[in-house]
Specification:
1 helix; globular; mainly beta; 8 strands; Substrate Binding Domain Of DNAk, Chain A, domain 1
Amino acid sequence: MNRAVLALLLVAACKRSARPPSLGEPISVEQPGGSASQLFAQGSEIPTSATEGFTTLKDDEKRVYVHVLRGAGRTAAALRSDSWWEIDGVTPARGGEAQVLVTFEVDAQGQLALSAREEDRRLTAKKLESAPAKAAPSPLTEPDDDEDIEEDSPE
């Protein structure tokens, strides 16, 4: 067979079998009370991102904790703990008033990174080595209808 034809067939075969990378399992965050809110479904093409709103639980808290989970299920107990993240630098306010937007970014290798902002100010997002002592995951806030929350598009 002619080398040019063989090369063309090989390229065509590679294009047909090439699929974009995707997540092998869903990624969720824990909510107060032990429920789980899914951010990314299994099979989602990567890289990808999603932005969610969080708030504080108590008055004058300066930190928000985010518990990231992997696997399929509706409760945190049914999922595997992936990581805990501490969002630091939240403006002290009454519990539930702080509006912290956290962007979850999954790169092409499936690695998760978080960034956070409050209004027009960036906050520090740090992955913790272990679960924080006596920390409950911070609740998601309900975005206003006119609030623009970006999904699937990094900043």
